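Risk mitigation, structural track. In case the binding assays with guanosine-5'-diphosphate fail to produce interpretable data, a predicted complex structure has been prepared as a fallback.
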Amino acid sequence: MRVFFIGFGQAGGKLVDMFLAQDRKLGSTSFRGIVINTARTDLMGIKHIPMEDRLLIGQTMVKGHGVGTDNVTGAKVAADEIDTIISAIDRRGTHDIDAFVVCAGLGGGTGSGGSPVLCRHLKRIYREPVYAVGVIPAPEEGRLYSLNAARSLSTLVNEADNVIVFDNSAWKNDGESVKSAYERLNEEIVRRFGVLFRAGEVSKYGVGEMVVDSSEIINTLRGGGISSVGYAISEAIPTMKGGKPAAKKDSGGLLSGILGKKEKKSEPHVDIASGEDKSAKIIGLVRRAMLGRLTLPCDYSTAERALVLVAGPPSELDRKGVEKSKSWVEENIAGVEVRGGDYPVDSGYVAAVVLLATIGDAPRIRELMELAKEAKEEVVKSRERSHTAMFDDGGVDPLFE
Ligand code: GDP
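Fallback model:
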């Protein structure tokens, strides 16, 4: 799928920077994008995106210093400068894209406020679907972040065609701060969505036996609401050369490093013993992807649609395995629409991606909404406890009215 990424705010900008760096590393042109921020320093921290594709907005209002964690100002700045944003997107070229993907951390100010505004306008102007990849904050980041994320997410679900959620708290390790985990979390995000959004693009190995084209991703996400993604990898069996296993293709290949490495602790893994039935291996991998850690932990049985994608060296891909996996997923989700296919890549690993679309229940979202409600009540109370109250009944007249 050819994707136009827009990174809004700091988290969104870093993610899009990584998506585009991944694309460049692969020598591919499937991804393009721009980044937008109200903070000049955050834009300067971007590594791979050319300066002309970094857009500073809100200069008259916040003078390049950012909006803090005020997402109402973030939304206002985006609305005021929407024409400048759309011109920057048009300049980068949109005629051949399949979808827009807006990335943002929903707990902050710029991306949290700006991304729903941008999604509304993109949908109004272009025919292509508009998806959001939204990062939700861990409760430890504070109630203001939860309040911002809850407001942003509940607006975003009405403005984007689908919001795929990544939960920072589900992915950081115990005892680790969210900030120190950013880099690792971003790699996890970009790996999953990189494989998913790349499906159907022609690789060095041509197209898969069961191609997932962009229309299948679009149809899976059609129901709207929020979605989550599961992922699992396993080592591929080394191909035999002269009766001996050939060296494992772990480096130098087209997609090497993209699927991830087995040592990564956060992933559920399967070891593939040689000679084992290929289709059973694929089913095992897909099960682990769906039952393991999802980008947003949720009750998968409430998903309305799903997409199963198996990426790996052609020798590991198996039509029957993908078909059986699709049936297994279908038995386990609420809806009956399960699409799927394979994607041949040059890698020493096989990966399964399961997109669970339009989820009916996710405890973390309910928790976020609850935290936000408490935070809002706290804000009202603190307004009532006005800082001028102590001067109100002193019977002392001000100098002038
Ligand atoms: P903005 O620049 O005002 O849009 O705010 P940020 O992008 O800094 O958004 C704040 C939220 O995004 C908080 O919940 C942060 O924890 C989260 N965040 C910031 N940077 C990153 C990052 O690099 N990765 C991840 N996963 N989350 C981030």
